[in-house]
Amino acid sequence: MTSPFPDWLVPMAATLTQDRFTGPEWIFERKFDGIRMIAFKNGADVRLFSRNRLPLNGSYPAVAQAIANLPVNDVILDGEAVGGWERFGRADYYVFDVLRLDGRDLTALPLDERRRVLGDLPLQLPIEQVAALDGRDPWERACAEGWEGVIAKRRDSTYEHRRSKSWLKMKCESRQAFVVGGFTDPQGKRVGLGALLVGYYDQEELCFAGKIGTGFDTALLLDLRARLDALEIPKIPFTKAKGLPRLRAHWVRPEVVVEAGFIEWTGHGKLRHPRLLGVLTDRDARTVHRQGSGGISPALEERER
How far apart are CA 55 and CA 58, in angstroms? Predict the structure, then answer.
């Protein structure tokens, strides 16, 4: 049955995860560092929009022409436009989903079926279908080759017009050492501590970098709490300390050094999505300095999917 052609569809968004996994029920795709773009073709009318419904025809005229040339009456494609940001290959528009084709709404179909429909479309450059990744650890390949990360998608997932856990994005992490300057009390059923309050030295200043609350097992939580209790002091050790917690915080002599993985530095100089990787027993706290530079700018938030 033919359904009315929509003026707009809210794009499905992936949920960030720090888990790393594979399985036959998942498809993995490269996460391009571009801008999300939804393409609408209804007869001779072609409209390209960002995920926030900003018109993009003027930015990608060759993509609009290639979609106009498709031998279909109507189609809605979802993908990532990269030509205006950084060249990854020959294409300007990497398509990973098809939501409608010739009057038929495809969003209720499982992803595997939608990918088969997409594969039958005669896409021509500068449009290309996003390939499924082979290999045991696709995120390892992503980081080794300098990609932004990978997207894991359930093969049986329908297309949801919201952020969903059926699509999970695994971003490549940065990692570095941090000095522990405090911790918070555990809440609920958690034991030991809630989060580590960490920072780094900038000459003589100890700068607060954020809280690390994941990456612990029970034994490590209890061991760290015992070690930090012995270092507790009444005064905040951080000398540059915007955003410190006000409740249930304890301060310690800055002697313990840990390693953390994180996605990036925010624009406010804090860690985005950090997780504990381990305790560095042989590292002098005074040698811990910030590595890398700034965070994501507001103008680039549009590029997330």
Answer: 8
Give the pTM. 0.68
174-287: CATH topology is OB fold (Dihydrolipoamide Acetyltransferase, E2P) (2.40.50)
13-39: b (≥16 Cβ within 10 Å) or e: bbeeebeeeeeeebbbbbbbbbbbbbb
What positions carry a catalytic annotation?
31
Stated as kind and residue range, the H or E segment containing 233 is: strand 232-233
**What's the rounded Cα separation, in Å, for the pair 31 and 142?**
9
- The CATH homologous superfamily of the domain defined by 13-170: DNA ligase/mRNA capping enzyme (3.30.470.30)
In 3D space, the residue among 59, 126, 124, 72 whose CA is nearest the CA of residue 99 turns out to be 72
Beta strand ranges found along 112-159 (DSSP E): 127-129, 149-154
Mean pLDDT value across residues 83-90 = 55
Domain coordinates in residue numbering, the chain: 13-170, 174-287
DSSP 8-state assignment for residue 33: S
User: Are 305 and 80 a contacting pair, CB within 8 Å?
Assistant: yes
Q: What is the pLDDT of residues 162-189, one digit of tens each?
A: 999 999 999 888 889 999 999 999 999 9
Q: How confident is the model at residue 151 (pLDDT cuts 50, 70, 90)?
A: very high
Please provide residue 274's backbone torsions phi and psi, each rounded to the nearest 5 degrees: -80, 155
**Mean pLDDT to the nearest integer, 260-277:** 89
